[in-house]
Amino acid sequence: MTTDEFDVDNWVERLARGMQRLAAVQDGYRQEKFRRRAHGARGDGFRNPSEEFRDLYWRASLEESDIYQDGCGPLAVALEEVRSILFEHPAWAGVMDVSGDGKISILFPGSGGMGDPLSAIAGLMARGKEAGEDGFRLACSELSQLLEQDDETDGDRRRAELLTGYHVALFQGLIFGEEVRVGDDLAIVPFAHLDAFVDADMLERLGPGAIRFKWDKTMAAVVKPFRWRPEFSNDGKGLESDWSGFESFCEDAEVLIELLALFHGAPTVGFASIPFRLHRRACLLLGNPNVHRSYSAKQRSWAFGLPPDPVAARQEAVETAARAFVNRDGERYRNCAPIITRLVEALARQGRFRTEDQILDVAIALERMYELHQGEISFKLKTRAASFLETRTKDRLRVFKDVQEFYDARAGIVHVRGGKGKKPKPKHVLERERQAAFDKGFDVARRTVVKLLNKGAPPDWNEMLLEAVGNGARERRGNAGTTVQGYRNRNGQTVIRRTDTPGNDHNQVVYELECGGCGCRYGANGSDIWQRKCPECGGGRPGLSYS
Predict the structure, then answer these.
(1) pLDDT band at residue 195, thresholds of 50, 70 and 90?
(2) φ and ψ of 478, to 5 deg
(3) CA-based nearest residue to 159, from 171, 146, 172
């Protein structure tokens, strides 16, 4: 690209040739001897190749450097040639005019990290060497894209990639094979897709032993993209980051991770939240490969051991979580939010009393959702849950029995049971029974949350019970046809009422159906009720209109 004052293509070409000459000079230098002299007892060398180059260039730039005593004066000459070409770029020419001493700071968002021209040259050298054939021309071209201040070039794919950063919230427990978009600006991505932003070294710093335990294979992330540009200063000031955006992202990510855990029924917890992650290559080219080190560690649910086997993410569970997330500002979600958090924490509990604590967590959640107060709490819970979640008598009986089994387990934990002559159950038998009770109780609680989010609580629980009794009586009188109110097909779709709207099949009218999974209501021909699937969560055909 050529402008009236500056020819970018010519600048890239000359800078690449200068980098090639610099590489040829420095490759002849005895770097092992330099490393030992420069760092004394430090025997592990440099963490990043650009750091070694930066140290070498810094010593070569000193006026009284002993580098000349080793016959390496040409290194300083080659370095000065590259630096003079670098300073021709208008992105930092204005700052040079102000400072007058050749010292420029390159500012990055979110961390206060700074680079400088020598570090940028070291980054160019490291990037050129890793890029292989014609690597210096590629590295210099990428640097020119980073320095470009013209908005019209934002459409360039490579530049957009370098100048896109992410807020990142890592979590464990679910395996994602591909990116999933959620709402307008969030996405869920596998950890492997973040290698340019969060590498294995950072994961090891976040959780020592993480690589040994292969947590990178069982981890995913919620991410939010942002656009940025490097800024230049002679005093290190001038760049302010919007931390409020990161704080709101952390809150949203926590909500989404909780919903994913709930609808998968799997222990899934946040690992760490990391702000302002910039592309590794952009940081390298601008001379600060370690610019972003800050992070916020999250709950470590597996403090007593390794994470359990992760669960593969299911499409229907992810879609249900995404729908609930989009509606997170509504009253229904606000009412359910503390309950969701408790249920998710129950899934991730560890320790000697794990199952007992899980059962108590679910019991608290159920009692809160079904608005149970003093007196006959167990009976009220069984009848309200059965009537709220199901429409057919046999299904209500199943829920009734599941809640009975769960609440018996809860009572066995809270109250002293047994007496003289009563032999206690073996520990493994008791643990197996309590685990089964927890699974049933959690399923009832999860389904209750789904229905509360989709439909809300009934205005009056007692009225709901009386209506359920009436529906059950009609069912027992023999109304077993597929079009009667309350009929539920094998796919969990329940007949709500007959409408007066004509169907789109011969001699048919439209019936209003309700999905037992997500609560969606839609219309269907009477002849299709027996085989109908939900159009929202079951992959069924679109519903018919009705009045």
Answers:
(1) confident
(2) 105, 10
(3) 146
Q: Which helix (H) or strand (E) holds 71?
A: none
Q: pLDDT higher for 231 or 282?
A: 282
- Report which residue type is found at 260: L
Digit-coded pLDDT (tens) for 330-348: 999 999 999 999 999 999 8
Confidence class of residue 210 from pLDDT cuts 50, 70 and 90? low
Can you tell me the distance from the alpha carbon of 457 to that of 449, in angstroms, rounded to the nearest whole number?
10
* pLDDT tens for each residue of 52-88: 888 888 877 775 555 545 555 788 888 889 988 988 8
Q: How far is the CA of 373 from the CAs of 67, 234, 364, 376, 459, in angstroms?
A: 82, 67, 12, 9, 16
pTM of the model: 0.75
The closest of 152, 156, 128 to 50, measured between CA atoms, is 128
Taking residue 535's Cβ as centre, other Cβ atoms within 10 Å add up to 16
The secondary element (H helix, E strand) that includes residue 384 is: helix 377-389
Q: What percent of the chain has pLDDT over 70?
A: 78
Q: Record the tokens describing residue 431, joined without a space.
A: 């643990």
Q: Which residue has the tokens 């994602």?
A: 176
What value, to the nearest 5°, has the Cα angle with vertex 363 and ends 358 and 367? 155
The encoded tokens of residue 132 equal: 């292989």
Q: Is 406 helix (H, G, I), strand (E, B) or coil?
A: helix
Contacts of 218 (CB under 8 A, 6+ apart): 172, 173, 175, 307, 310
- Which residues have a Cβ under 8 Å from the Cβ of 282 and sit 6 or more positions away? 146, 162, 163
